Amino acid sequence: MNRPRLVMIGNGMAGVRTLEELLKLAPDLYDITVFGAEPHPNYNRIMLSPVLAGEQAFEDIVLNDLEWYAGHGIRLLLNRSVVKIDRRRRLVIADDGTEAAYDRLVIATGSSPFILPVPGNRLQGVIGYRDIADTRQMIDTARSHSHAVVIGGGLLGLEAANGLRQRGMQVTVVHLADWLLDRQLDRTAGQLLQEALEARGIRFRMGTHTEELLDNGEGRVCAVQFQGGEVIAADLVVMAAGIRPNVALAERAGLPCNRGILVSDTLQTNDPRIYAIGECASHRGIAYGLVAPLFDQAGVCANHLAQLGFARYQGSVVSTKLKVTGIDLFSAGDFMGGEGTESITLSDPIDGIYKKLVIKDGVLVGACLFGDTADGGWYFRQVQARTDIRHLRDRLIFGEALAAESTEPAAEPRCAEPARIPVRLLQSA
Questions:
Q1: Which keywords describe this protein according to UniProt (predicted)?
Q2: Which residues on adjacent β-strands are paired with residue 286?
Q3: CATH 3.40.366.10 fits 126-241, yes or no
């Protein structure tokens, strides 16, 4: 029996999740081939931070071992990068000459770290933070060197900084913006996060431009020079200043790209035989870099590959949770607010708790939590569902349990009840 041929370019979380969903819907439909650029089976990339921090081993983060591929009859080609897509012959070609013909093709090539275009960016000891190889290099460097500089105060940068600090290195984070996680937190929460990380021994240079990486005379980085001339020691420089979708392969094949491979609501490119998902794809002008939207895309893509054809991806409301041990942080939706919104904030500096909820037209549209994220999932569900929360407004900031009480009839006024809640400052604007 000649089955249609499905080729997957990329063996990461988005691509393999698509295969998992497809195998549930149509386990015997395709003859499947997967190309993976790394020498490893599919692993949980977001768990590299606990590996760097020494909390888990590489073996612990493997999601699908080699037996999984073999058990599902999947031809897995590791350590091979696809260099050409021949759309006319419906053929993909890898760097070692391996070829695979396809009837359906899924591009899941992910993204690459953005390397700052400064002098010295190719020196030994200057790396991105993306995969197992990067993580191993950081662990090895920490055994023999002392000073690390992380460029970028986003999620990856802070996780790298925390892991290197736990490995014993002196770590400085250099960030261009005025507060950490400026795309995931407001200023108040970002400053609270910085204070918490400073208490762990991590140093910060905010609003600072990197001008040059200096050579020790043997081709290895030894220092970072900032705009203005100041220099600090650096045996290791981790670039965590953003990512760039890997679209070169798609561009060479003539597929339209604009900050990602352009896809429709069915995750198809302008070639209906070719799909793109994950960090390499641009859907309605957005290339997502968090795992939840990628898994949403995987479900839709699998639905169409299984020839069901009814699912549509309409974008995702994203949430953020920092994976630094002992620091609870959560944000979702439009947490910054703006014209036409109102914000409710709770600040408890003694216990290190800050909460901010953003409401628009009676609907919760965003949340930013620091120190107490127990209700993050509940707030996120309200944001996703666009729930009318006007009847909960006065208690919304106190979380699901207390907000639910406001829907119950009260025998008498409950005006004294908030005094039992340990809140030092409550503001509404």
A1: FAD, Flavoprotein
A2: 283
A3: no
| Shared fold status for 5-112+244-305 and 126-241 | yes
Residues β-bridged to residue 43? 62
5-112+244-305 maps to which CATH number?
3.50.50.60
- Dihedral sign (CA 226, 232, 237, 243): negative
Distance CA(276)–CA(384), nearest Å, equals: 25
DSSP collapsed to 3 states, the chain: CCCCEEEEECCCHHHHHHHHHHHHHCCCCCEEEEEECCCCCCECHHHHHHHHCCCCCHHHHECCCHHHHHHCCCEEEECCCEEEEECCCCEEEECCCCEEECCEEEECCCEEECCCCCCCCCCECEEECCCHHHHHHHHHHHHHCCEEEEECCCHHHHHHHHHHHHCCCEEEEEECCCCCCCCCCCHHHHHHHHHHHHCCCCEEEECCCEEEEEECCCCEEEEEEECCCCEEECCEEEECCCEEECCHHHHHCCCCECCCEEECCCCECCCCCEEECHHHEEECCECCCCHHHHHHHHHHHHHHHCCCCCCCCCCCCCEEECCCCCCCEEEEECCCCCCCCEEEEEEECCCCEEEEEEEECCEEEEEEEECCCCCHHHHHHHHHHCCECHHHHHHHHHCHHHHHHCCCCCCCCCCCHHHHCCCCEEEEC
Give the integer Cα–Cα distance in Å for 322 and 324: 6
Supply the CATH classification number for the domain 329-428.
Answer: 3.30.390.30
Locate the domains of the chain by residue range.
5-112+244-305, 126-241, 329-428
Task: Please state, in angstroms and rounded to a whole number, the distance separating the CA atoms of residues 97 and 81.
Answer: 10
List, for residues 121-178, the tens digit of each pLDDT value: 999 999 999 999 999 999 999 999 999 999 999 989 999 999 999 999 999 999 999 9
pLDDT tens for 346-405 read 999 888 899 999 999 999 999 999 999 999 999 999 999 999 999 999 999 999 988 877
* Distance in angstroms (rounded) separating the CA atoms of residues 246 and 267: 16
